[in-house]
Amino acid sequence: MEHFYQLGWTLDSAGGQSGEAYKAEQNGERLFLKRNASPFLAALSAEGIVPKLLWTKRIETGEVVAAQDWKNGRSLTEEEMKSSRVAEILNKIHHSNHLLVLLKKMNVDPITPSMLLNEINQSMSAQLLSNETIIDAVDYLNEFVPSNDVKGYTLCHGDVNHNNWLLSEQDELFLIDWEGAMIADPSIDVGMVLYNYVPYDEWKSWFEQYDFKPEVSFLLRMKWYAILQGVTLIIWNAKEKRYQQMNQWIQFVDDVLTHNINEVL
Length: 265
What we know:
- One of its GO terms (molecular function) is kinase activity.
- It comes from Abyssicoccus albus.
- Keywords: Kinase, Transferase.
- By secondary structure, the chain is an alpha+beta fold.
- It has 10 helices and 10 strands.
- It folds into 3 domains: about 70 residues, 2-Layer Sandwich (Phosphorylase Kinase, domain 1), CATH 3.30.200; about 100 residues, Transferase(Phosphotransferase) domain 1 (Transferase(Phosphotransferase), domain 1); about 90 residues, no CATH class.
- It is about 40% helix and about 15% strand.
- It is globular, with a radius of gyration of 20 Å.
């Protein structure tokens, strides 16, 4: 980002695992800069899903840098994830044909259950498979694989945890960090919100806010994807030697495995 230093900007890391996001300041002006930003960002900005995109520039390294409005704010709390605003924004995303068509034009292929399950089976270590919950989870995933029929697939974020929601000081709510945007079953996003943040007895109310009446087939897919994402996070945390977080996700997977979906119908 030497180009921006030369132009007099002060850059500070804005966090994130990629290390490609910066807070830029010059003469009282503040921007959020992102290297290698997705071209999909402009469409998300136009829909008000992310902070406003101001410009994009190709710098001398060949990388494209995107500048967005800097928004002072904070992540949502776990309790706030139950709010109707989260459900409404997810509904907007999952039902946006415009955004879905744009993603397809970027040659993004649908993500099917078989593709995700194959990654799990190839990544699983013998050490992890010594854990009873993980054994049960892998058995469940292999036994109850949803259909690979992509009909009904939508734009999905893929990582809707509370840290990826930005509530600005002006009370604007954004869903950020779209690097993992995918075309997939929307139950991928819905399941992780519900199983992580919403008590079972409030699911019916949440689905009303999401403007959707779930059927058994949707709830079963939601459970399958939640287990799969939980196992994925177990594998990642084990690799990073983050054992406390790994154990938390093992407990999460155990809770999802034992959940009876008939309780929420």
